[in-house]
Write a structure and sequence with these properties.
Length: 169
């Protein structure tokens, strides 16, 4: 198994992208906020990996897990990206409501750049049909990793002490 296959993501499927309740605003925003919080597994994507798994998959040295001798702590990049997207989302809503920004500007800009790099690394080559000169159609297929599989793996490998769920937002 190569480094790009660890953690394992055995299930690949197709998904149809379309507008969802994650993008709701105004009166429905509290429901969307609840859904966004549910994107993070227990531990928010911080995982504890054994020394043997680190060596077998060529993972870098990392901070030791204080509760499991020999294990090391890693933060799954996908959850870092979701954390960043959640911070940008909060910043946009605060700006739209003309509220003071709760996140430092440098953090928001770090998050934008982090997501840019990830999109460029994982560029989706799906051909998206157009409904007009500047309008994209929803409802076409993409090939995706199974989010539930990754979510469950992250939850199962959560360290004993991990960030609170509220810290992910």
């Amino acid at each position: 198994m190569g480094i790009d296959e660890y953690p394992p993501h055995k299930t690949i499927h197709t998904a149809v992208f379309q507008d969802t309740t994650y993008g709701d605003i105004d009166a429905k925003k509290p429901q969307a906020d609840f859904l966004w919080r549910g994107l993070f597994p227990s531990g928010n994507g911080l995982v504890s990996v054994s020394k043997s798994d680190r060596e077998a998959h060529g993972l870098s040295e990392t901070w030791p897990d204080p509760d499991t001798p020999g294990n090391g702590l890693f933060f799954m990049a996908g959850y870092h990206n979701l954390h960043c997207l959640a911070k940008i989302r909060t910043s946009v809503f605060e700006s739209q409501a003309q509220k003071n920004q709760s996140e430092p500007w440098a953090h928001v800009m770090h998050c934008i750049d982090q997501i840019r790099q990830t999109i460029m690394c994982n560029i989706d080559t799906t051909l998206v049909p157009m409904s007009g000169p500047k309008e994209f159609k929803d409802g076409h297929y993409h090939v995706c990793k199974d989010y539930r599989d990754v979510f469950e793996w992250a939850s199962q490998h959560r360290p004993v002490v991990a960030p609170e769920d509220s810290e992910a937002e």
